[in-house]
Design goal:
- The protein is of the alpha/beta class and about 230 residues long.
- It has two domains: about 120 residues, 3-Layer(aba) Sandwich (Rossmann fold), CATH 3.40.50; about 100 residues, Orthogonal Bundle (Arc Repressor Mutant, subunit A).
- Helix content is about 40%, strand content about 20%.
- The protein has eight helices and twelve strands.
- The protein has a five-stranded parallel sheet with strand order 2-1-3-4-5, with helices on both faces. A four-stranded antiparallel sheet has the order 6-7-8-9, with helices on one face.
- β11 and β12 form a beta hairpin.
- α2 runs parallel beside α3 and α5 crosses α7.
- The radius of gyration is 18 Å and the shape is globular.
Length: about 230
């Protein structure tokens, strides 16, 4: 049984989440603050963390940074009333896998949880190319999960790396949004999220481009994205 940790100071909300996730077949633990959450996150069998940002003491961002500092790569889904793009960007930069704003639909949340877990299973069994992927002055090693631009390493978060690989494998072809959401995040068709756009902007920035400029990664209006051939 896959185990999920909820780090949330609102006991009523945590109980409601736990009830719905248990119905879906998950084992669920709850921590009311960051310190107890970090202690519970040591469980090697943990499959996912659902994290609130507005916690007493250390906030959710600090929890996430501390968690990643321990070397843990357990997927984290942020669940917060803070819906500003700056908060989402900070969450992704700290190592979050997804970001859902309150209020939310329980079915949507469960779908996102299942998608993240499918993605984690798929990544573990994915066949990696031994040959680096290349475009312009960028080189991508799937085996080492390393990106270099002009010989200098570019540090990417896990989903940023997976997104770049998904585009590089289809270099020159338009990749629909639904296809990227499925391949990188494990979502089924029809999920609406700004997660993809936020990650594209971060990739452009880290590859030395203006996030609002097409550069290597071109936006195809109302369709998806394409890596310039």
């Amino acid at each position: 049984m896959r185990r999920i940790l909820i780090v949330e100071d609102n006991a009523d909300l945590a109980r409601g989440l736990r009830t719905n996730l248990v119905v879906e077949g998950f084992a669920v633990d709850w921590a009311p603050d960051a310190e107890k959450g970090l202690e519970a996150a040591r469980d090697p069998g943990l499959a996912l963390v659902i994290l609130d940002l507005m916690l007493p003491g250390r906030d959710g961002f600090e929890f996430l940074e501390a968690l990643r500092h321990t070397g843990s790569d357990v997927p984290v889904l942020i669940l917060s009333a803070r819906g500003d793009e700056t908060d989402k960007l900070r969450g992704f930069r700290a190592g979050a896998d997804d970001y859902v704003t309150k209020p939310f639909g329980v079915r949507e949340l469960v779908a996102r949880v299942q998608a993240i877990l499918r993605r984690a299973v798929g990544a573990a069994g994915a066949k990696l190319s031994a040959e680096p992927l290349r475009f312009a002055d960028v080189e991508i090693s799937e085996v080492d999960r390393q990106v270099k631009r002009g010989g200098e390493e570019v540090l990417l978060r896990p989903r940023e790396f997976d997104l770049l690989v998904a585009l590089a494998r289809r270099r020159g072809a338009v990749v629909p949004r639904d296809e990227l959401m499925r391949d990188v995040w494990g979502y089924q068709t029809g999920v609406h999220s700004r997660t993809l756009d936020t990650h594209i902007a971060e990739l452009r920035r880290k590859l030395g481009q203006d996030p609002a400029s097409p550069g290597y990664i071109q936006t195809v209006h109302k369709v998806g994205y394409r890596l310039k051939a």
